[in-house]
């Protein structure tokens, strides 16, 4: 006999109360649910073909679990809606938007039943709970639902949109039950931000998983052109499309917001991609990320990600130095798992980076709200990079913190046996950042000249020596 989550109370499938006897058995009536819960949202982004991803979905169409996960605004729902349209040509597809209410497992099951009944009317009776199940009505509802689906010859596809809203272990166990006992006729498509509460390892081992990741969801240049010019009816050159695509790093929402900014400003005055990248879309992007990412983020994680925005990339040790948090490595991994715009470096998996648009948003916010913290973070970064012999970065962050003395110390910290090319690059990086009146002290310019001579770059060495003489005469 199959078994489901124990100790739970069951709803009626349509949310209506039964008799007093049914209520006494533990029925829970979900709150009224809008019909839009069972329909995909309408968006011009749904017009985007995403042919390469549709091919991947088609290749695994018979697998029991399809997971589409990525950051907010990456096009998860739009892709699922496009896939639903194609599936409807061959099978029945139920759509259900997951809400916080679905953390009550009884309501979640009622909503799943409602979604399936809308897609396939005339399902088996869910209403009256037999006497032997009165102590565990959820078991009855799950068993009846599974038996009904398994008894149907045609497969039923159920799309669960925004699964990340579920944090209840009971609801997650109910989903596990459906996956384990739904047979080959129940296929689930799940969209989510992050992978928490999904049995990916188990389903992958069984070869029952299709996974579309955040990296997969990033638009390539051709898809960006389709979104900008076809979906948004712009007429951008290939160069302009490439500029916007690079700035957004393929993030669908970033490109969409840029397209809206361009359309608005082109109606009033001519604005090209450089102007959009330079700030026209900044306000829209900041507003979107504030509302859809930071607003729902726990303060500890928000502070952690803010600290990371001052560096181009971070590993666990650097993140710990910036945040003074002993759990920095675990938080990096968690942020990546949760699709919080933290991306693992494929070439060096110990290092992570923030999505460029998200990093810019956090930097603007930090500069506006807490410039003292920004300076402190740059100083922490400079100290860490200097300790790890990454002198160019140490100099860069010292200058960002407006601490030329620290920058000079960092540049002078190279040992004489340091590779001359590396040494020269760091020294010239420092000199190029500083005006004559600030830092080009005699010992730095002497080091530049000495390093150039070691590289047999006599002309460059003479230039450095002449500059050194000028500084001596001026008393710098």
CA gyration radius, whole angstroms: 29 Å
User: Can you identify the CATH class of the largest domain?
Assistant: Alpha Beta
How many helical stretches?
23
Cα distance spanning the termini = 87 Å
The secondary-structure element order is HHEHEHHEHEHEHHHHHHHHHEEHHHHHHH
Note the overall shape: elongated
Structural class: alpha/beta
Supply the number of structural domains.
Answer: 3
β-sheet strand percentage: 5-15%
CATH architecture tag of the largest domain? 3-Layer(aba) Sandwich
| Unreliable segments of 5+ consecutive residues | 1-28
What is the CATH H-level superfamily of the largest domain? P-loop containing nucleotide triphosphate hydrolases
Q: Taking strands numbered 1, 2, ... along the chain, how are they ordered across the largest sheet? A: 2-3-4-1-5
Task: Draw up the topology in text.
Layout: H1 20-24, H2 51-59, E1 65-69, H3 76-87, E2 92-97, H4 105-119, H5 137-150, E3 156-161, H6 169-181, E4 186-192, H7 200-205, E5 209-212, H8 214-217, H9 221-231, H10 238-248, H11 252-268, H12 273-280, H13 282-292, H14 299-308, H15 316-323, H16 328-337, E6 342-344, E7 352-354, H17 356-369, H18 371-387, H19 391-400, H20 404-412, H21 420-433, H22 442-454, H23 458-474
Parallel strand pairs: 1-4, 1-5, 2-3, 3-4
Antiparallel strand pairs: 6-7
């Amino acid at each position: 006999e199959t078994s489901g989550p124990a100790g739970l109370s069951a709803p009626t499938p349509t949310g209506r109360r039964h008799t007093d006897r049914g209520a006494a058995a533990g029925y829970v009536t979900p709150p009224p649910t809008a019909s839009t819960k069972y329909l995909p949202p309408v968006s011009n982004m749904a017009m985007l073909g995403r042919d390469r991803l549709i091919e991947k979905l088609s290749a695994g169409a018979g697998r029991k679990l399809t997971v589409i996960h990525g950051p907010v605004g990456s096009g998860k729902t739009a892709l699922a809606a496009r896939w639903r349209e194609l599936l409807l040509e061959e099978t029945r597809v139920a759509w259900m938007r997951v809400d916080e209410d679905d953390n009550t497992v009884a309501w979640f099951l009622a909503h799943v039943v409602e979604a399936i009944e809308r897609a396939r009317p005339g399902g088996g009776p869910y209403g009256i709970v037999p006497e032997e199940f009165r102590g565990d009505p959820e078991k009855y509802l799950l068993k009846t639902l599974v038996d009904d689906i398994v008894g149907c010859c045609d497969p039923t596809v159920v799309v669960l949109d925004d699964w990340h809203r579920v944090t209840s272990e009971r609801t997650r166990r109910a989903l596990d039950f459906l996956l384990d006992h739904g047979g080959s006729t129940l296929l689930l498509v799940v969209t989510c931000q992050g992978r928490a509460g999904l049995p990916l390892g188990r389903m992958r081992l069984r070869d029952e998983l299709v996974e579309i990741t955040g990296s997969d969801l990033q638009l390539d240049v051709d898809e960006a052109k389709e979104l900008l010019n076809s979906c948004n009816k712009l007429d951008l050159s290939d160069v302009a499309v490439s500029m916007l695509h690079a700035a957004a790093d393929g993030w669908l929402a970033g490109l969409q917001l840029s397209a809206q900014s361009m359309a608005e400003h082109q109606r009033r005055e001519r604005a090209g991609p450089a102007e959009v990248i330079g700030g026209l879309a900044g306000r829209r992007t900041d507003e979107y990320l504030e509302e859809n990412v930071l607003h729902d983020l726990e303060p500890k994680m928000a502070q952690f990600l803010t600290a990371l925005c001052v560096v181009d990339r971070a590993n666990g040790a650097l993140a710990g130095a910036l945040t003074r948090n002993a759990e920095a490595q675990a938080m990096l991994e968690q942020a990546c798992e949760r699709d919080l715009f933290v991306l693992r470096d494929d070439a060096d998996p110990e290092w992570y980076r923030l999505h460029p648009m998200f990093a810019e948003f956090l930097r603007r916010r930090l500069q506006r709200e807490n410039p003292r913290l920004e300076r402190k973070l740059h100083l922490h970064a400079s100290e860490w990079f200097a300790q790890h012999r990454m002198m160019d970065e140490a100099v860069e962050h010292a200058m960002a913190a407006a601490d030329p003395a620290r920058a000079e110390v960092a540049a002078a910290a190279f040992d004489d046996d340091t590779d001359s090319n590396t040494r020269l690059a760091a020294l010239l990086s420092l000199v190029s950042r500083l005006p004559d009146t600030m830092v080009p002290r005699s010992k730095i310019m002497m080091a530049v000249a000495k390093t150039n001579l070691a590289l047999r770059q006599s002309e460059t060495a003479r230039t450095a020596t002449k500059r050194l003489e000028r500084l001596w005469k001026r008393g710098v």
